[in-house]
Here is the input.
Amino acid sequence: MHNPGLMTGVFYLLFTSPPSFLWSRKLDLNGKVAVITGAAVRIGRSMAMALAEAGVDICIHYRSSKQEAEQTCSEIRELGRKSLAVSADLSDSHQAADLIMNTAIAEFGRVDILINSASVFENKNLLSSSENDWDSHLDINLKAPYFLCQKFAKALQRGQTGHIINLVDWRAQRPGTAHLPYRISKAGLVTLTECLALELAPDIQVNAIAPGAILAPPGEDHSYLEKRAEQIPLKRAGCPQDICDALLFLLRSDFVTGEVLSVSGGEQFSPGA
Here is the structure.
C-alpha cells in the first residue's frame, strides 16, 4: 500500500544525502612529499609554504638563492613539516633531474608531487634573440621539466599515485611576437602536460597552471602590474595566493588531468595580448 510518509522520507534522503558516487572527493595531502623547482623565491616559495601548511614535506630546488632557500626551509620546519634544499643548475637538465629526485628520495623515501616552477622569462623576439637565449629558455623551461617528469615517473612505487603540476603561461596558448623563446618553451610544456596526462594515467595526474599578472618581473616595480591591469578583463593583478589556491584544487582532485588552469583574470582574451 502506498505510504506518502515513506516516499517523502526517501526523497528527503536522496536530495539531502546524495549517493556516494555524487560526493565530492577531496584528497588528503597530509604526509605527502613534494619537489618544487625554483621554490626559494617568488611564486615557487609561496607554493612551498602553502603545501607545508597543508601538511606536505618539501624538497626545495634552487640554483643560486641559497640564503632564501634555507630561510624557506626554516619556515617550513616551524610549521612542523620536513624540508630540505637542493642546489642544481637546470641548464644541465638530465644531471639536475637526477640530483634533485635522488636527493629527495634519499631524504623522504618517496616523492608524491612534482611541481615544475623554475623558469627563465626574457622578452626577446626573433631578431633580438641569440642562440644562448634559445638554449636557456628551452633547457630550463622545457628540457628540465621533461627529465624531472621522467625521473619522477620511474621512481613511483607500486600502489603509489602522484601528481605533476607544470607552471606554464597564458602566452603559450596564443601566438605573439614578444617573449618568443619563452613563449615557445611554455607551449612545449603545455604539450608535454597533455601527452603525459595520457601516458602516465591512471597512476599520475598531470596538469598545468598558467599564471597571468601575479608578480612584477625582477627589476620592475608595482607600476608594471598597474599597467598590465588595464588590459585584464577583471581590471586588477592577481597575487601568489591565487596560484596557491589553483594548486591546492588540482592536487586535491582525483579526476582532473591534462588540464591547463589559467589564473590570469582573463588576460589571455584581451586584444593585443
Observations:
- The chain has one domain: 28-269.
- The beta strands are 33-36, 57-62, 83-87, 113-116, 162-167, 204-211, 260-263.
